[in-house]
TrEMBL record, chain A:
GO terms for cellular component: mitochondrial large ribosomal subunit. This is Ribosomal protein L19. InterPro entries: Ribosomal_bL19, Ribosomal_bL19_sf, Translation_prot_SH3-like_sf. It comes from the Eukaryota. Pfam families: Ribosomal_L19 (PF01245). One of its GO terms (molecular function) is structural constituent of ribosome. It comes from Modicella reniformis.
Automatic annotation (TrEMBL), chain B:
Residues 130-139 have a biased composition (Polar residues). Transmembrane segments: none annotated. Its main location: mitochondrion. One of its GO terms (biological process) is translation. This is Large ribosomal subunit protein uL3m. InterPro entries: Ribosomal_uL3 (IPR000597), Ribosomal_uL3_bac/org-type (IPR019927), Ribosomal_uL3_CS (IPR019926), Transl_B-barrel_sf (IPR009000). It is found in: Mitochondrion. Keywords: Mitochondrion, Ribonucleoprotein, Ribosomal protein, Transit peptide. The keyword Ribosomal protein applies. NCBIfam families: L3_bact. Belongs to the universal ribosomal protein uL3 family. Residues 125-164 are annotated as: Disordered.
Length: 212, 250
């Protein structure tokens, strides 16, 4: 595709799109490339300063100001990403000093999307049995017993596929951070039919109103 | 030039794509200055990474740095280039040399595992755990034939030191570039440990138009214009997503 001189025994490594022929082509289509500054195109231009417009395949996310004070590079990156993905307030679900913080034993309603391009949402109701705090990949586990089968769902807190997390009922009397013992000794923890009915009741009332 | 820069592997971080499949990326700090070697029979650029104090640099090496007029560096890499991609000595290379959506190869020494047995080192099967096997559950087994050839061939896979060799992770996509911190976020695993020098180059197996999305080509040939870098936003992310192939279209 591109012609270039191969030196004897020397592997010209990594030469793909950056050949001299490509540079020559770039010069021909000078006005179309973004990487040639205005100063080169038109030296007499008063504001001969290059401008950058992101191409279609590159997105510019919300920019944060760098603050490396008191933290290392990886911590900084983690915090910035949490700020970006937790902008809708889901950071508060794991924030102990916030009243909306989740506690093990809460009964949650989690709505998730199947994919970013579809609008259909799945709902899962269950008891929060574990919260794993890992920065950006923090997760929580929700358990329910559906048709006599125990089902646990693990959700990544900052995943864009999670539409909403709501607390239906606050847990009382759970004295552990991880409620794995509920797998063997559930007691009455998974008697959630009443709550599920409450959840669906307003929906049925709304549909009845629409029909009438 | 097509070559990348020597960079320092900083660590793994989780990242969330639009489809919410998290992948690990290794961020790297970039680059340093450039040296030329044209009277040596081949055209290459010698790039140094990470400053080092003069008192810790050997005198012969220090002489080389002084001749080039640059600060002494910890690590030097050479990249073969075509003559038109040669840069002047002292040029600083930055993260924007790469473009989000581009494919790169990352080379670095692998994590050292020490002296390891054949099962871990070469993936051998070992012997059964029971049924009379005595004391040789994880051993090599046979190493050859009998009187003919009557010897063990050179290169026979056996136990020994594992790791610490150069490995190249090929065709890793650059997901994000940070101009202020000079970081590249690369999709996938990069060999080696944290804070280790990684040689990053344009992907050898993605030739021509396949190295980057079409609207981003041509890649900045000698390197990116520093004035343009000043105007660029701090972070640039390669777009992912689009229509989900797993969603049934009705």
């Amino acid at each position: 595709m591109f012609s270039f001189a191969r030196n004897f025994g020397v592997r010209l490594s990594g030469i793909t799109a950056r050949y001299s022929s490509t540079a020559a082509n770039a010069e021909k289509t000078n006005t179309k490339t973004r990487f040639v500054s205005l100063a080169l195109q038109n030296p007499t231009h008063p504001a001969a300063k290059p401008t950058y417009t992101a191409p279609a395949s590159v997105s510019v996310p919300a920019q944060f100001k760098v603050n490396t004070r008191g933290q290392g590079l990886m911590q900084l990156i983690d915090k910035e990403e949490i700020k970006r993905y937790g902008a809708d307030g889901r950071f508060n679900l794991f924030n102990k000093s916030h009243p909306d913080c989740l506690r093990p034993g809460d009964v949650l309603v989690v709505e998730t999307l199947n994919s970013m391009s579809a609008d259909k949402a799945n709902t899962f109701i269950g008891v929060l049995i574990a919260m794993d705090r890992r920065g950006l990949h923090s997760s929580f586990t929700v358990r329910n017993v559906i048709l006599k089968i125990g089902v646990e769902m693990k959700y990544m807190l900052y995943s864009p596929l999670i539409k909403s997390v709501r607390v239906m009922k606050r847990g009382e009397g759970f004295r552990r951070a991880k409620l794995y013992y509920l797998r063997d000794n559930p007691g009455r923890a998974f008697r959630l039919e009443g709550l599920i009915k409450q959840e669906k009741a307003p929906q049925t009332k709304a549909t009845k109103r629409n029909k009438a | 030039m097509a070559s990348l820069l020597s960079s320092v592997r900083v660590g793994l971080c989780a990242n969330l794509k639009a489809e919410s499949r998290s992948f690990a990326t290794a961020t790297a700090q970039l680059i340093v200055e450039v040296k030329n070697e044209e009277t040596h029979g081949y055209t290459a650029l010698q790039i140094g990474c990470s400053d080092r104090s003069e008192k810790n640099v050997a005198k012969p090496l220090l002489g080389q740095f002084m001749k080039a007029g640059v600060n002494p560096k910890r690590k030097l890499y050479e990249f073969h280039v075509t003559p038109d991609a040669v840069l002047p000595v002292g040029t600083e290379l930055v993260a924007s040399h790469f473009v989000p959506g581009q494919y790169v190869d990352c080379s670095a020494p692998t994590i050292g595992k020490g002296f390891q047995g054949a099962m871990k080192r070469h993936g051998f099967g070992g012997q059964p755990a029971s049924h009379g096997t005595s004391v040789t559950h994880r051993s090599l087994g046979s190493v050859g034939q009998r009187k003919d050839p009557g010897r063990v061939f050179k290169g026979k896979k056996m136990a020994g030191r594992m790791g610490g060799d150069q490995a190249t992770a090929q065709s890793l996509k650059i997901m994000k570039i940070d101009n202020e911190l000079n970081l590249i976020y690369v999709n996938g695993s990069v060999p080696g440990v944290d804070d280790q020098y990684v040689k990053v180059q344009d992907a050898v197996k993605k030739r021509g138009d396949k190295i980057a999305p079409a609207d981003v080509l041509p890649l900045p040939l000698p390197t990116v214009d520093p004035n343009l870098v000043k105007v660029m936003p701090r972070q640039l992310v390669a777009k992912t997503g689009g229509s989900d192939p797993y969603v049934v279209k009705e």
